[in-house]
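Reviewer 2 asked us to include a model.

Predict the structure of this chain.
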Amino acid sequence: MKNRKITTQFITQTAIIAALYTALVYVFAGISFLPFQARIAEALCILPAFTFAAVPGLFIGCILSNIIGGLGIIDIVFGSLATFLAAYLTYIIPKDILKPLPAVLVNAVVVPIILYYTVNSPILLTAFEIFMGQTISCYGLGLPLLYALKRSGFMKANQ
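Predicted model (structure tokens):
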């Protein structure tokens, strides 16, 4: 891993990503919470392919979003840690086609457990629903976003 310095650019990128994630969850709150969810903001989980600043940015954005969601401290802590883990794994995965996979798999494992303890949702059914929603968000929206950002030259991979 490269030696990471905290610069103004890093802090700015982190803040923008956190704000964008939070705003997307807030705007699409109706489909961002509970068992069947398709968080549009999860498309941003491919951003660690371009900058390490996306790892803390997505984590902070998820913390703020889960505060909005109202499911309590379990969701705020463990849901956000799941996003942090998925973002870091996305950062280290070399193949573009696999970059959305950590967000899909980590959330399909962690979120059903959170929802079981917060709203008594059945774990296996919820895991399937989260898996499907994450696949839509991360592969259906995130992967095209990754390819579009690469083609545009706006962002270079793993700066």
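Residues 8-152 form a domain with the Arp2/3 complex 21 kDa subunit ARPC3 fold (CATH 1.10.1760). The radius of gyration is 15 Å. We have added this to the supplementary material.
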